[in-house]
């Protein structure tokens, strides 16, 4: 089996459809496996990322991420100030991806890109959530 992640934080990614959708982070100490009451207020949450105290992270839920054709991938970005850094290119099952979220990252965002992914995106985010 793969790396066992001990969650420290969880980020729920909300779908962005024409207007900014805000997602929530569970408070430290909350059980990331238990749904947050605030997360239930999100319009169309698409996934949840857990982040360990060492920055190791993975998707634990991604049911809302629609399958893409073979020419496209989802790409996960970490936002630090005005900069976006690529954290992972996600295949048809994002829950298999592991990645690192640096401490400076304030927001996670997902874009749809042409395969095999890009160095810098000009695409709008299809989902996002703050890391606070």
What report would you give on this structure?
It is globular, with a radius of gyration of 14 Å. The chain has 132 residues and is an all-beta fold. The protein has strands at residues 7-15, 45-52, 56-61, 72-80, 83-90, 98-100, 107-114, 127-130. Mean pLDDT is 76; it is low at 17-43.
Strands, helices and their partners?
Layout: E1 7-15, E2 45-52, E3 56-61, E4 72-80, E5 83-90, E6 98-100, E7 107-114, E8 127-130
Antiparallel strand pairs: 1-2, 1-8, 2-3, 3-6, 4-5, 4-7, 7-8
Terminal-residue CA separation: 30 Å
Spatial arrangement of strands, main beta sheet: 5-4-7-8-1-2-3-6
Order of helices and strands: EEEEEEEE
User: What is Rg?
Assistant: 14 Å
Number of strands: 8
Q: How much helix, percentage-wise, in residues?
A: under 10%
Helix/strand-derived category reads mainly beta
Largest sheet: 8 strands, antiparallel
User: Overall mean pLDDT score?
Assistant: 76
Low-confidence stretches: 17-43
How many domains? 1
The number of helical elements comes to: 0
Q: What's the gist of this structure?
A:
With 132 residues, the protein is mainly beta. 0% of the residues lie in helices and 42% in strands.
């Amino acid at each position: 089996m793969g790396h066992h992640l001990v969650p420290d934080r969880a980020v729920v990614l909300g779908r962005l459809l024409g207007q900014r959708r805000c997602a929530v982070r569970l408070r430290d100490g909350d059980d990331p496996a238990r749904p947050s009451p605030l997360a239930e207020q999100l319009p169309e949450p698409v996934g949840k990322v857990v982040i360990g105290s060492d920055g190791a992270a993975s998707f634990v839920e991604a049911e809302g991420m629609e399958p893409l054709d073979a020419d496209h991938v989802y790409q996960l970005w970490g936002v630090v100030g005005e900069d976006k850094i690529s954290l992972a290119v996600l295949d048809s099952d994002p829950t298999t991806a592991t990645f690192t979220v640096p401490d400076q990252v304030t927001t996670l965002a997902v874009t749809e890109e042409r395969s095999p992914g890009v160095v810098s995106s000009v695409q709008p985010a299809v989902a996002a959530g703050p890391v606070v």
